[in-house]
TrEMBL record:
PANTHER family per the UniProt record, alphabetical: SERINE/THREONINE-PROTEIN PHOSPHATASE PP2A 65 KDA REGULATORY SUBUNIT (PTHR10648), WW-BINDING DOMAIN-CONTAINING PROTEIN-RELATED (PTHR10648:SF7)
Record PROSITE patterns: HEAT_REPEAT
HEAT repeats: 197-236, 845-868
Protein name per its UniProtKB record: Serine/threonine-protein phosphatase 4 regulatory subunit 1-like isoform X1
Amino acid sequence: MAVGFEDYGPDCDSMRITAFLDIPGQDNLAPLARLEKYAFSDNIFNRQIIARGLLDVFRDFSHNDEDYLIVMAIVVRLSEDTEPTVRTELMEQIPPIAIFLQESRPNFPTAFSEYLMPIVVRYLTDPNNQVRKASQESLVILLEQGLVAQNDIENKVCPILLDLSAPESDDEYKVEAVNIICKMASMVNKSTVECLLLPRFCELCGDGKLFQVRKVCAANFGDICNAVGQEATEKNLIPKFFELCSDSVWGMRKACAECFMAVSYTTSPEVRRSKLSPLFISLISDPCRWVRQAAFQSLGPFISTFANPSSAGLYICEDGTLSIRPSSPHSTGSNTSTRPCSSEEAVENNSASLTEGPSSTSCISCFENSAAQEESAVAHVNCEIDLTRLTQSDHVGTCVAQSMNDCQVHNRRGINSRVQSAEDVFNTFLYWRPPLPDISRDLELLQCKTETHEESCSASEALCNNCVASSEIKKVLQSLQEHMDDPDVQAQVQVLSAALRAAHLDSVNDYEIKQDEEVNSNNQEEASVLDPSHSTRNESTQSLLPSPGETVNPSSPTVIKNVDVEQLLNGTDKALEIEDNEPPFEEDKSKLQDIIPQPLLDQYLSMTDPARAQTVDTEIAKHCAYSLPGVALTLGRQNWHCLKDTYETLASDVQWKVRRTLAFSIHELAVILGDQLTAADLVPIFNGFLKDLDEVRIGVLKHLYDFLKLLHADKRREYLYQLQEFVVTDNSRNWRFRYELAEQLILILELYNPNDVYDYLRHIALTLCSDKVSEVRWISFKLVVAILQKFYANKANSLGLNFINELIVTFRHCSKWIGRQAFAFICQAVVEEECMPVNHFVEHLLPSLLSLASDPVPNVRVLLAKALRQTLLEKAYFRSVGNPHLEAVEETVLVLQADRDQDVAFFATIKPKHHTVHITSLEKQN
């Protein structure tokens, strides 16, 4: 009776699939004939097993070229099987077969391309969904492994994908095709993506029929941008990205928000600042909560794409660690800005290694002005006028006329759009109040001084114009009085008041001042009124104007704190009095910077607002805390004042997850800020974390060494008293906490002198050595050895001898066998690490160690046997002594080899393969 797969049963998966081919005389057929018989059997199960075992088949027949070709032909015929499960099994085997053939067949590329690759491509259009899925997964694996030739990608894979994603293609195939296109973009060369796939991807981004296609494009947009590079991204992809960000389906906008950082990373700083920043603000203000949630989660990562290592004074090493750039000879050693470094100096600084100590001051300011030179026009979604044209034009009056329509629109809805983005869905000012008067004429009159400069007018004509402008502004202020309860009107009154003040000051200027000087000063004053971010704003109006990028807070009662409209209308200077000791908007000015667009920073700082948690995301504060180091790195330590209050708010958040997030990253933030700011602002928060819940404390504990090494020696020494508090935990079962403490103490030893180690850290080490959990004890024994090494490396031999005596008393003469076993391990580690002079070891530790040979507990003798046989007798450090103690060790080993316990005798006999200290489970059950 012939034996086939029918006789194997359901558990044949664990069998060697080709075992039936080795049965002599079965069916009187040759192995290849038998393979073909079962490959095309009427029994579906037989064909499935053959398809599943193809890798074994190739292994058996690949040594012969003729048999190999026959097997290939059988595979091709099997790929045409009518049963979908057979085709699925076959497709799942193609990647491992391709890998095997690549390694064993010199002609693999030709064979794979000729026989197997057509099967993969054909299955992409298979009518069965399961087969297509298997084909798509196999294709991705083959591309990842680099097994598909470039010619096959261009001539076989890309054409079929373009056909499947064509407008007239079936919807299901189209979605699958765009998925594959997005996945393979990062696996093939740039030219292939840009020439063959990019045009179709851009077309699919605008597919108006299937939102599923657009969603796949949006979700993978960052990968495509990264694949084609900056030029193609800005030319072809950014316009499509704008369309997707304004798609009517909220899922599309959410996907765009999630990949925003990847898109931004590929673009130039100019595009990132002028185009992507306003676009991102629109996503943050999206009416859909899920879109806003995704945008806020991506806000910090997006801000981090503005980071410039040259301006931050920091850079990321190849191993991913954050490092400080060594001080430049042009650095002043402070946080104040100096001249920008040249490009040659920047390259030199970027390539420099970290050579400074923990207390050194790094060069962080020599590139500070570079960010301001990149882009003079920062695009704001809610800007009151076109700042770009105002700052770049020589004819301010003409620009004001061109910007008048924008001003009028903003007067009615501009500020309210900011309010709506903060979740105010209704504002009565938009609906029932009369529209604000048109002040375009007044602003035109305000520019007459510039026009007189262009026409070479006299100073007296400018004075007259100032008077006219003042009277017109007063009329506008009079018309706004009835609406003073509205915060939007208050904001406009603020700007007009500053303009009135400027006009009044100009009217009392000395007529004998040279005409060109007077006109220049007037131009600067006008620019300060119309463009609050102007760097040369008039001193008299500086405290009244809104700060650059400042968002007016309608709920703030201090918007027009010292502006009396009645007195302004009467021409009284008292209306503009400013308190010298408390200038308005000082709090807002403290958040100003020029590294990133100010609206992005304002939105990031608002993530700690409790209202955001209610209307956007309950964990928005956690996302803010998670990305704060990246934002701080982007802004640089010179702008830490922008984040300080936010960081303190997060550090006191009621949610322990928020505080835990900060605790895990506080050491990185300390590197970013430097020693001075760390001591002033981070140390108090660090101290608070030390007394927090264990879930928070573990964050600072895991990076305790990284944080302490950044502090000055005197400040660092204060923590010696607090380290022992880590031994106590909220839950005694949390042994990993104590394990982490022991690991950190091994690193921390280098930060303190031997006396401090002996007085403070020694007690902690001995306490951890007596822990109930074995894992904690084993790592603590290593800590003990590291302490001994610390003493002898610093010539503190007396402290080392005192500690040795304490170890003998504590462990060698311990009443519990665990303590005596620990002593054997410590001695083994001492010899392994060579942490003390060999004569000290022989004199003070070896006699006590050898005495353990008569210990009644086998567990102790087992570890003694390992210490003697695998370490002492194999270590040149010990054998070089050449004294009777070596003979004593050998005699002890012989005694242990004859021990009644089999494990003791085994470890005393076996020779080690390598000299390592094993801390595996050595404790046997008695």
